[in-house]
From TrEMBL:
Protein name: Ras-related protein Rab-32
Species of provenance: Acipenser ruthenus
GO cellular component: late endosome; lysosome; phagocytic vesicle
Top-rank taxon: Eukaryota
SUPFAM superfamilies to which the protein is assigned, alphabetical: P-loop containing nucleoside triphosphate hydrolases
One Gene Ontology MF term: GTP binding
Parts of the chain that traverse the membrane: none
Pfam family, one: Ras
Amino acid sequence: MQTVQATVDVTWRHNQSLGSLYNRQERFGNMTRVYYKEAVGAFVVFDVTRGSTFEAVSKWKHDLDSKVKLPNGGAIPVVLLANKCDQKKDGNEDNSSNMDQFCKESGFIGWFETSAKDNINVEEAARFLVENILINDKGLPSEDSNGDTVKLDQETVAAESKSQCC
């Protein structure tokens, strides 16, 4: 019997996805549990042109950690995005070693300078997050614990490959 794992392809509209998430957090201060339901990974986005948004990053991360956990009780992978890197920065958020240290201390799995407008590092950040989600997924109960897994045996594969279309 053979287990087949699906390939994950993440596609989004940059301005809508990043902007939508960012605006909700900024407007409401924190997000309700309904936004986190069954989340397996997240981005926390701050605006490098407005230092006050970086000051809120720790609060947003704490809010995430308190409201969503992996099935094994661990924290979901969270990537920090320093958005609007195509514009002039406000403050010292551009110091890579400081950002690396901040992420390590705050529980982020990594960070990227991004520009949703110019599509800078958006795909790379998404790929990094998805790779980490898949790594976590390997350690979680799967196969027999849910109905989403498809197992194929050689006879089924051989029979399907011999069938012809209309």
